[in-house]
Amino acid sequence: MEMVEDVVVVGAGIAGLAVAVALKRVGIGALVLERSEELRATGAALTLFPNAWVALAALGVAHKLTSVYAPCTRGFMTNVSSGVIQDVSMTGKASAAAPRSVHRKALLEALAEELPINTIRFSSKLTSVEAHKQDDGSSISIIHLKDGTVVKAKVLIGCDGVHSVVARWLGLRAPVNSGRSAMRGLAVFPEGHGLQHEIQQFVDVGKRGGFVPLTDKELYWFLVCKSTSKGQDMGGKPELIRREVTGNVAKDFPPIYLDVVGHSDPSTLTWSPLLFRLPWDVIFGNACKGTITVAGDALHPMTPDLGQGGCAALEDAVILGRHIGESFIRFGRLVPQETAKAIESYVKERRWRVSLLIAASYLSGWMQQDGSGWLMKFFRELIFNRLLYSRIIDAVRYDCGKLPTVSSSGELKKQD
Questions:
Q1: PANTHER family this protein is in (predicted)?
Q2: I need a labelling partner for 165 at 20 to 30 A (CA). Which of 68, 81, 88, 185 fits?
């Protein structure tokens, strides 16, 4: 079977769906190829900071989520060893909007609802990519799927995650292992958990955990620790994950945290190694070739210590949509050479931004978890937690801009 499309987006995760919505907003249809049989919600939930809400507003879906999920204005960080509790502002020095934690599935569904029926083609696993030169000097992407289908596209955008086939084809170096792993889950209290809408974090040497309420009955929890050989056997074994967290890795954490983990919905429990792309590989790597590029984790996998993976993916979508959209509206169609220039401009705009996020996330994780000596404790508790953390929170604030539209006179303009 052979298909011909203007734009193909690989992956129906946050990045892929957001890119498709951004393109739709500027008048460009896209086919989204997803390897799973339905929308995947691995990770249960995520916290979206103000930069993500700016992007979601540009995509026209922010209102669907802000009406359901309340902001988290306060947080507390407890040192497990000493018992010292620090108040952490979730709005930073800039007094900007507070973050909100949302169900990952709700975010995916909010994005998917904006797309025309049949935009997403499920059970479509990408196996390889080719680029063929055309007579006019442009190139066309040849996408091979596992079921034998071949898709030809003028534009290919890889949003296919950490182990991206498209990123590998472009020549980007593979992500590296941080030496840490993350456990995540969704705790359900049918009668209500009775906790305030605040982010609670617990830090010990080599590990950091926490939870945040999503609703009055559900809490999202996480635990990041140094990787062990046991972690390799945890995948797909929810009860084993829960026992390992409560009985071993987090056994010294306060009872309230262990109780939250104990109420986990087994279907939401995950254990996975944390990978990230080295910042200089993003800065100097080849993130585009002609009309082929990547976005989201395919471009900038990072550790979750600043909660910026999904936020940065939403930024990618708006900025990519802005650059391609301006070219499309100006010429009234996808002109290969001009679209290639637009994609190159997108990559140029994103390189330093996401590289800094990768570095800041890694530094934040290392500073909060590693080292038990007095000097490290002093720097972590008195300098990092009290002074630097709020500045880092401010640093992740970012306005990705708005998507272009066409005025009644046919002129290019930005959204209001």
A1: FAD/NAD(P)-BINDING OXIDOREDUCTASE FAMILY PROTEIN, OS04G0423100 PROTEIN
A2: 185
